[in-house]
Design a protein that fits this description.
Number of strands: 4
Strand order of the largest sheet: 1-2-4-3
Order of helices and strands: EEHHEE
Radius of gyration: 15 Å
């Protein structure tokens, strides 16, 4: 069975907290919750979106969590999760995530 591509929009009140760190930049979209860190990749084909998301997740693990690049890559291979966020034109969007329990 295929997904029909219908979205669910709704009215909502949300609270967003933004921290501005001067002189700091990130290469793309990153999300963090109490339990996960996640990098987002958007591209066509879908494999490129996954590659972008995982590449940034590996770099994040190296820069902020002290992993060696190979260790971060191996961890993402074994414990990383991927979630499909968008699969309609023009690009696919995927999130590559890691449980914070593996980071400390």
């Amino acid at each position: 069975m295929a997904s029909c591509g219908v979205a669910v929009e709704m009215a909502a009140r949300v609270t967003v907290r933004v921290d501005i760190i001067k002189g700091w930049s990130i290469p793309g979209v990153r999300l963090e919750t109490a339990d996960f860190i996640m990098s987002i990749g958007s591209a066509r084909p879908m494999e490129d979106a996954a590659r972008m998301a995982y590449r940034d997740l590996v770099r994040w693990l190296v820069a902020d969590y002290g992993f060696e690049e190979a260790e971060a890559y191996f961890l993402c291979t074994q414990a990383g999760r991927v979630r499909l966020g968008n699969m309609v034109d023009p690009k696919y969007t995927l999130g590559a995530s890691m449980l914070k329990a593996y980071l400390g």
